[in-house]
Amino acid sequence: MTEKRWLFDLTGRSAVVTGAAGGIGSAVAEAYAAAGAAVLVTDVDGDAAAAVAERISNNGGKADSMALDVRDRAAADAAMARAAGFTEGVLHVIVNNAGVTAPSMFPDTTTESVQRMLDIHLMGAFNCAQAALPFLATDGTGRIINVTSSAGIIGTLGQVNYSAAKAGIIGMTKSLARELARKNILVNALAPLAATPMTTTIRTDERFAPQMLNRIALRRWAEPEEVAGAFVFFASDASSFVTGQVLPVDGGMVI
Ligand SMILES: NC(=O)c1ccc[n+]([C@@H]2O[C@H](COP(=O)([O-])OP(=O)(O)OC[C@H]3O[C@@H](n4cnc5c(N)ncnc54)[C@H](O)[C@@H]3O)[C@@H](O)[C@H]2O)c1
User: Which of 223, 215, 218 is closest to 197 using CA atoms?
Assistant: First the structure.
């Protein structure tokens, strides 16, 4: 008799998390390892990614690290092959989390900054998803998990560049979900909100912090660990009948 798996168990699964040197990405890598997955921690900052992998290993998890700029397709190919090597050449989960912001009001927004947002967020997710595809499991355990933002759903003042890239990720998620359903690969996106280096200014600068807090129904920020559970859901058997969805995990900013 086969033993019944706990719905959120990731034992025997491999995962790549991009932009996982800190913030939400490292919390997701740690949550995946705690759930039993072997995790490749990647970031443009390879040293910081290595420190996260070491922390996971020291806590008894299985992790390795690699420097990966998501704009670099050859490096993405190498990362996916390496992570698949954890589990006999089959990759289970890719989380497209890497990101940056460059806020500016529209008249001051340069084409270069828009292009940079598109390159890192949209093309980065495209590169890593396409690099992962040849390795992704086709037995229902293969997952592409993209990270978007409330900015891409309801818009944000001073973030035309970032919002455009994040909205693009939503369109890509939905089309990929339809296309990859025939391979039994599930594709979803999360729109998180958490206290990370990315949100330091809007959480602490008196010009923005009170208004920002007012937009969150729960009137507080979450630590990255609090949003990581939803990433475990999308990686695990618990979400086996969910695809093409965008889940805000933001204390009720998007309702
Ligand atoms: N923190 C929030 O409230 C929030 C809200 C909405 C969406 N997000 C999204 O969540 C994701 C994680 O954000 P975070 O808050 O943890 O930010 P963060 O700044 O703490 O972490 C982002 C990580 O991405 C890495 N990175 C940047 N450019 C990269 C590149 N080209 N290739 C690979 N790695 C790169 C950085 O080195 C960093 O470690 C991002 O996609 C962000 O847009 C965050």
Answer: 223
Residue 4 inside a domain? The answer is no
Return the best residue to mutate from 100, 101, 122 for the ligand 1 pocket (most ligand atoms within 8 A of CB). 100
Q: Which of 98, 45, 92 is nearest to 71 (CA)?
A: 98
Taking the whole predicted model, whether its pTM rises above 0.85 is answered as yes
Note whether residue 163 is domain-resident. Answer: yes
Which residues participate in catalysis according to the annotation? 162
Q: What is the CATH number of the domain that holds 144?
A: 3.40.50.720
Q: How far apart are CA 190 and CA 68, in angstroms?
A: 21
pLDDT tens digits along 13-70: 999 999 999 999 999 999 999 999 999 999 999 999 999 999 999 999 999 999 999 9
Backbone dihedral region for residue 211 (phi beyond 0: left; psi -120 to 50: alpha; all else: beta): alpha
Determine the residue of 156, 198, 201 to mutate for testing ligand 1's pocket, defined as the one with the most ligand atoms within 8 A of the Cβ atom. Answer: 198
Q: Whose CA is nearest to atom 28 of ligand 1?
A: 99
Contact 46, 244 (CB under 8 A): no
Residues 6 or more apart whose Cβ sits within 8 Å of residue 109: 160, 161
Give the domain extent around 161. Answer: 14-194+225-249
In degrees rounded to 5, what are phi and psi of residue 14? -115, 150
